[in-house]
Amino acid sequence: MTFRGPALALTAALCAAASPALAVVGGELSRDVDGPRSWTVRVETSRGELCSGAAIAPELVLTAAHCLMGGGSVSVVSLDPRFRDRRQAVIAVLPHPTFVPGTTPRTQPGADLALLRLAAPLPADIEPLSLGSGLWQGETVTMAGYGLAVENNKRTARKLRETQLVNAGNYTTANTVKVAVDTQAMGEAPGAGACRGDSGGPVLRGNGTSHDLVGIVSWSSGPLNSHVRRICGGFTAITPVNDYRSWISEASSQLLAMGRERRRGDPVPPRENSSWSWWFSR
To answer: Got the DSSP string for the chain?
Structure first.
Protein backbone atom coordinates (compact mmCIF):
# COMPACT_ATOMS: atom_id res chain seq x y z
CA MET A 1 0.00 0.00 0.00
CA THR A 2 1.47 3.35 -1.01
CA PHE A 3 0.87 6.52 0.97
CA ARG A 4 2.70 9.79 1.19
CA GLY A 5 4.03 9.93 4.71
CA PRO A 6 5.95 7.61 7.08
CA ALA A 7 4.63 4.06 7.36
CA LEU A 8 4.97 4.15 11.14
CA ALA A 9 2.80 7.25 11.31
CA LEU A 10 0.17 5.52 9.20
CA THR A 11 0.18 2.46 11.44
CA ALA A 12 -0.11 4.60 14.56
CA ALA A 13 -2.99 6.60 13.11
CA LEU A 14 -4.94 3.52 12.09
CA CYS A 15 -4.35 1.55 15.26
CA ALA A 16 -4.71 4.26 17.86
CA ALA A 17 -7.69 6.05 16.39
CA ALA A 18 -9.52 3.25 14.63
CA SER A 19 -13.24 3.09 15.32
CA PRO A 20 -16.19 1.14 13.98
CA ALA A 21 -17.58 3.29 11.16
CA LEU A 22 -20.93 4.15 12.59
CA ALA A 23 -22.39 8.56 8.16
CA VAL A 24 -20.24 9.91 5.54
CA VAL A 25 -18.16 12.94 6.51
CA GLY A 26 -17.20 15.13 3.58
CA GLY A 27 -19.85 13.46 1.44
CA GLU A 28 -23.06 14.74 -0.08
CA LEU A 29 -26.69 14.08 0.67
CA SER A 30 -27.93 11.36 -1.65
CA ARG A 31 -31.09 12.50 -3.46
CA ASP A 32 -31.02 10.46 -6.68
CA VAL A 33 -34.04 8.16 -6.60
CA ASP A 34 -32.11 5.66 -8.71
CA GLY A 35 -28.89 6.03 -6.72
CA PRO A 36 -27.79 4.54 -3.36
CA ARG A 37 -31.36 4.82 -2.07
CA SER A 38 -32.13 1.82 -4.25
CA TRP A 39 -29.73 -0.55 -2.47
CA THR A 40 -28.56 1.01 0.81
CA VAL A 41 -30.51 0.35 4.00
CA ARG A 42 -30.23 1.44 7.60
CA VAL A 43 -29.61 -1.32 10.16
CA GLU A 44 -30.86 -0.69 13.70
CA THR A 45 -31.11 -2.74 16.86
CA SER A 46 -33.46 -2.41 19.83
CA ARG A 47 -30.39 -1.56 21.92
CA GLY A 48 -29.60 1.58 19.98
CA GLU A 49 -27.01 0.40 17.46
CA LEU A 50 -27.04 2.22 14.13
CA CYS A 51 -25.29 0.93 11.01
CA SER A 52 -25.82 0.63 7.27
CA GLY A 53 -26.29 -2.33 4.96
CA ALA A 54 -26.38 -3.43 1.34
CA ALA A 55 -29.33 -5.23 -0.22
CA ILE A 56 -28.04 -8.28 -2.13
CA ALA A 57 -31.37 -10.08 -2.57
CA PRO A 58 -35.03 -9.16 -1.89
CA GLU A 59 -34.84 -10.83 1.53
CA LEU A 60 -31.10 -10.47 2.30
CA VAL A 61 -28.91 -7.63 3.54
CA LEU A 62 -25.12 -7.78 3.88
CA THR A 63 -23.64 -5.69 6.69
CA ALA A 64 -20.81 -5.57 9.23
CA ALA A 65 -20.88 -8.23 11.96
CA HIS A 66 -19.69 -5.91 14.73
CA CYS A 67 -22.90 -3.89 14.35
CA LEU A 68 -24.88 -6.78 15.83
CA MET A 69 -22.75 -7.82 18.78
CA GLY A 70 -24.87 -5.90 21.28
CA GLY A 71 -27.82 -8.23 20.79
CA GLY A 72 -31.48 -7.26 20.79
CA SER A 73 -33.92 -7.36 17.92
CA VAL A 74 -32.80 -6.09 14.53
CA SER A 75 -34.64 -4.18 11.82
CA VAL A 76 -33.74 -2.54 8.53
CA VAL A 77 -35.05 0.72 7.14
CA SER A 78 -35.25 1.37 3.40
CA LEU A 79 -36.24 4.62 1.70
CA ASP A 80 -39.15 4.86 -0.69
CA PRO A 81 -38.81 6.94 -3.91
CA ARG A 82 -39.83 10.01 -1.89
CA PHE A 83 -37.11 9.22 0.68
CA ARG A 84 -39.53 8.24 3.44
CA ASP A 85 -38.61 5.50 5.92
CA ARG A 86 -39.99 1.94 5.67
CA ARG A 87 -39.07 -0.42 8.48
CA GLN A 88 -38.89 -4.21 8.23
CA ALA A 89 -38.10 -6.87 10.80
CA VAL A 90 -35.06 -9.13 10.62
CA ILE A 91 -35.76 -12.75 11.58
CA ALA A 92 -32.24 -14.18 11.39
CA VAL A 93 -28.66 -12.96 11.64
CA LEU A 94 -25.72 -14.95 10.35
CA PRO A 95 -22.24 -13.55 11.08
CA HIS A 96 -19.20 -14.88 9.29
CA PRO A 97 -17.90 -17.88 11.30
CA THR A 98 -14.42 -16.33 11.70
CA PHE A 99 -15.67 -13.11 13.27
CA VAL A 100 -14.63 -12.79 16.93
CA PRO A 101 -16.92 -10.65 19.14
CA GLY A 102 -15.33 -8.29 21.64
CA THR A 103 -12.31 -7.42 19.52
CA THR A 104 -11.21 -4.03 18.23
CA PRO A 105 -10.62 -3.17 14.58
CA ARG A 106 -6.90 -3.61 15.15
CA THR A 107 -7.22 -7.05 16.78
CA GLN A 108 -10.13 -8.54 14.79
CA PRO A 109 -8.79 -11.74 13.22
CA GLY A 110 -11.91 -12.65 11.26
CA ALA A 111 -14.20 -11.24 8.61
CA ASP A 112 -16.41 -8.33 9.69
CA LEU A 113 -19.42 -9.54 7.73
CA ALA A 114 -22.95 -10.68 8.56
CA LEU A 115 -26.03 -11.57 6.56
CA LEU A 116 -29.53 -10.55 7.62
CA ARG A 117 -32.67 -12.46 6.60
CA LEU A 118 -35.74 -10.24 6.47
CA ALA A 119 -39.23 -11.28 7.53
CA ALA A 120 -40.56 -10.17 4.13
CA PRO A 121 -38.98 -9.10 0.83
CA LEU A 122 -37.84 -5.53 0.41
CA PRO A 123 -40.18 -3.31 -1.62
CA ALA A 124 -39.97 -3.69 -5.39
CA ASP A 125 -38.24 -0.31 -5.86
CA ILE A 126 -35.14 -1.63 -4.00
CA GLU A 127 -32.63 -3.10 -6.45
CA PRO A 128 -30.27 -5.69 -4.94
CA LEU A 129 -26.59 -5.37 -5.81
CA SER A 130 -24.46 -7.99 -7.49
CA LEU A 131 -21.22 -9.22 -5.90
CA GLY A 132 -18.24 -7.67 -7.65
CA SER A 133 -14.79 -9.00 -8.39
CA GLY A 134 -11.49 -7.96 -6.82
CA LEU A 135 -10.80 -4.37 -5.82
CA TRP A 136 -7.48 -3.05 -7.08
CA GLN A 137 -5.19 -0.34 -5.75
CA GLY A 138 -5.91 3.01 -7.35
CA GLU A 139 -9.52 2.20 -8.27
CA THR A 140 -12.21 4.76 -7.57
CA VAL A 141 -15.09 3.53 -5.43
CA THR A 142 -18.34 4.99 -4.15
CA MET A 143 -19.50 4.41 -0.58
CA ALA A 144 -22.87 5.23 0.92
CA GLY A 145 -24.21 5.13 4.44
CA TYR A 146 -26.28 6.58 7.25
CA GLY A 147 -24.61 8.22 10.20
CA LEU A 148 -22.68 11.26 11.21
CA ALA A 149 -21.91 13.93 8.65
CA VAL A 150 -20.17 15.81 11.47
CA GLU A 151 -18.03 13.61 13.71
CA ASN A 152 -19.28 14.85 17.09
CA ASN A 153 -22.86 15.74 16.17
CA LYS A 154 -25.32 12.87 16.57
CA ARG A 155 -28.08 14.95 15.01
CA THR A 156 -26.40 14.59 11.62
CA ALA A 157 -27.03 10.82 11.52
CA ARG A 158 -29.75 8.81 9.76
CA LYS A 159 -29.50 10.72 6.49
CA LEU A 160 -28.26 8.83 3.43
CA ARG A 161 -25.00 10.25 2.11
CA GLU A 162 -22.46 9.17 -0.47
CA THR A 163 -18.94 10.02 -1.55
CA GLN A 164 -16.23 8.85 -3.92
CA LEU A 165 -12.94 7.51 -2.54
CA VAL A 166 -9.85 5.85 -3.98
CA ASN A 167 -8.59 2.45 -2.89
CA ALA A 168 -5.11 2.97 -1.48
CA GLY A 169 -4.36 -0.73 -1.04
CA ASN A 170 -4.28 -3.37 1.68
CA TYR A 171 -3.87 -2.85 5.42
CA THR A 172 -3.02 -5.93 7.48
CA THR A 173 -3.06 -6.45 11.23
CA ALA A 174 -4.88 -9.54 12.50
CA ASN A 175 -6.85 -9.58 9.24
CA THR A 176 -6.56 -7.79 5.90
CA VAL A 177 -8.85 -5.03 4.69
CA LYS A 178 -8.77 -2.53 1.85
CA VAL A 179 -8.20 1.08 2.88
CA ALA A 180 -9.85 3.88 0.90
CA VAL A 181 -9.08 7.59 1.19
CA ASP A 182 -10.36 10.93 -0.03
CA THR A 183 -9.32 11.48 -3.64
CA GLN A 184 -7.73 14.84 -2.78
CA ALA A 185 -6.62 14.65 0.85
CA MET A 186 -5.31 11.06 0.44
CA GLY A 187 -5.62 10.37 4.17
CA GLU A 188 -3.12 13.05 5.15
CA ALA A 189 -5.63 15.81 5.95
CA PRO A 190 -9.32 15.66 6.91
CA GLY A 191 -11.45 14.66 3.93
CA ALA A 192 -14.32 12.45 2.89
CA GLY A 193 -14.74 9.01 4.41
CA ALA A 194 -16.72 6.78 6.71
CA CYS A 195 -17.80 7.81 10.19
CA ARG A 196 -20.03 6.55 13.00
CA GLY A 197 -23.07 4.90 11.41
CA ASP A 198 -21.49 3.83 8.10
CA SER A 199 -20.31 0.39 9.17
CA GLY A 200 -21.93 -2.22 6.94
CA GLY A 201 -22.54 0.24 4.14
CA PRO A 202 -21.96 -0.71 0.50
CA VAL A 203 -18.82 0.17 -1.46
CA LEU A 204 -19.38 0.10 -5.22
CA ARG A 205 -16.88 0.10 -8.03
CA GLY A 206 -16.51 3.40 -9.89
CA ASN A 207 -19.16 6.08 -9.59
CA GLY A 208 -21.75 3.77 -8.11
CA THR A 209 -23.89 3.25 -11.18
CA SER A 210 -22.43 -0.21 -11.85
CA HIS A 211 -24.36 -2.03 -9.08
CA ASP A 212 -21.02 -3.82 -8.60
CA LEU A 213 -20.61 -4.38 -4.84
CA VAL A 214 -16.90 -4.69 -4.08
CA GLY A 215 -16.83 -4.12 -0.33
CA ILE A 216 -18.57 -3.49 2.98
CA VAL A 217 -17.44 -0.67 5.27
CA SER A 218 -15.90 -2.00 8.48
CA TRP A 219 -14.21 0.84 10.39
CA SER A 220 -12.72 4.30 10.01
CA SER A 221 -9.77 6.30 11.27
CA GLY A 222 -8.78 9.94 11.29
CA PRO A 223 -6.18 11.48 8.93
CA LEU A 224 -2.44 11.35 9.51
CA ASN A 225 -2.06 15.10 9.98
CA SER A 226 -4.60 16.47 12.41
CA HIS A 227 -4.25 18.81 15.38
CA VAL A 228 -7.07 16.99 17.20
CA ARG A 229 -7.83 13.31 17.59
CA ARG A 230 -10.25 12.21 14.89
CA ILE A 231 -11.85 8.87 14.10
CA CYS A 232 -13.44 9.92 10.81
CA GLY A 233 -12.46 11.55 7.54
CA GLY A 234 -9.09 9.89 7.09
CA PHE A 235 -9.07 6.18 6.26
CA THR A 236 -12.05 3.96 5.50
CA ALA A 237 -11.47 0.24 6.04
CA ILE A 238 -13.36 -2.01 3.65
CA THR A 239 -13.99 -5.76 3.83
CA PRO A 240 -13.60 -6.98 0.22
CA VAL A 241 -16.59 -9.14 -0.72
CA ASN A 242 -14.71 -11.04 -3.42
CA ASP A 243 -12.57 -12.69 -0.72
CA TYR A 244 -15.73 -14.08 0.89
CA ARG A 245 -17.85 -14.80 -2.17
CA SER A 246 -18.20 -18.53 -1.42
CA TRP A 247 -19.40 -17.91 2.13
CA ILE A 248 -21.84 -15.21 1.02
CA SER A 249 -23.31 -17.53 -1.59
CA GLU A 250 -23.60 -20.54 0.73
CA ALA A 251 -24.88 -18.50 3.67
CA SER A 252 -27.45 -16.80 1.45
CA SER A 253 -28.78 -20.17 0.35
CA GLN A 254 -28.98 -21.33 3.97
CA LEU A 255 -30.87 -18.24 5.08
CA LEU A 256 -33.30 -18.31 2.18
CA ALA A 257 -34.01 -22.01 2.72
CA MET A 258 -34.80 -21.67 6.41
CA GLY A 259 -38.07 -20.40 7.72
CA ARG A 260 -40.11 -20.72 4.55
CA GLU A 261 -42.79 -22.67 6.37
CA ARG A 262 -42.38 -21.42 9.91
CA ARG A 263 -44.30 -18.67 11.62
CA ARG A 264 -42.48 -15.45 12.33
CA GLY A 265 -40.85 -15.55 15.75
CA ASP A 266 -40.68 -19.35 16.04
CA PRO A 267 -37.15 -20.44 16.96
CA VAL A 268 -35.17 -22.43 14.45
CA PRO A 269 -32.16 -24.25 15.93
CA PRO A 270 -28.93 -24.72 13.96
CA ARG A 271 -28.29 -28.04 12.28
CA GLU A 272 -26.24 -30.55 14.23
CA ASN A 273 -22.49 -30.08 13.80
CA SER A 274 -23.19 -26.81 12.05
CA SER A 275 -20.32 -24.39 11.58
CA TRP A 276 -22.73 -21.48 11.35
CA SER A 277 -23.40 -18.92 14.08
CA TRP A 278 -27.11 -18.21 14.35
CA TRP A 279 -29.34 -15.98 16.38
CA PHE A 280 -32.81 -14.61 15.85
CA SER A 281 -34.71 -11.42 16.54
CA ARG A 282 -36.51 -11.36 19.84
So the answer is: ---SS-HHHHHHHHHHH-EE----BT-EE---TTTGGGTEEEEEETTS-EEEEEEEETTEEEE-GGGGTT-S-EEEEEE-TT--EEEEEEEEEEE-TT--TT--TTT--S---EEEEESSPPPTT--PPEE-----TT-EEEEEEES-SSTT-GGG-SSEEEEEEEEEEEEESSSEEEEEEETTTTTTSS-SB--TT-TT-EEEETTTTS-EEEEEEEEEE--SS-SS--SSSSEEEEEEGGGGHHHHHHHHHHHHHTTSSSPTT---PPPTT-----B---
